[in-house]
Design brief:
Blueprint (H helix, E strand, L loop, with lengths): L1 H32 L7 H21 L2
């Protein structure tokens, strides 16, 4: 019974991480270009903060 719950949590967490991974992959070009423009540093930091927040929330929900 406990193993089934644990397996279900792991599966659901991995399933929830898929959209985060897709968005992260989509952000890669922006993260490669934006840091080299001084006017876009704040935008780059906002993107990284948002990705970090989404990942933390998915992992926290999987507990």
């Amino acid at each position: 019974m406990i193993l089934a719950r644990w397996t279900q949590r792991v599966f659901l967490t991995l399933l929830a991480l898929l959209p985060v991974l897709v968005v992260t992959t989509a952000f890669v070009p922006a993260l490669l270009v934006l840091p080299f423009r001084r006017t876009r540093v704040a935008d780059t930091q906002a993107l990284v903060r948002q990705l970090t927040a989404w990942t933390r929330e998915v992992l926290r929900a999987g507990r």
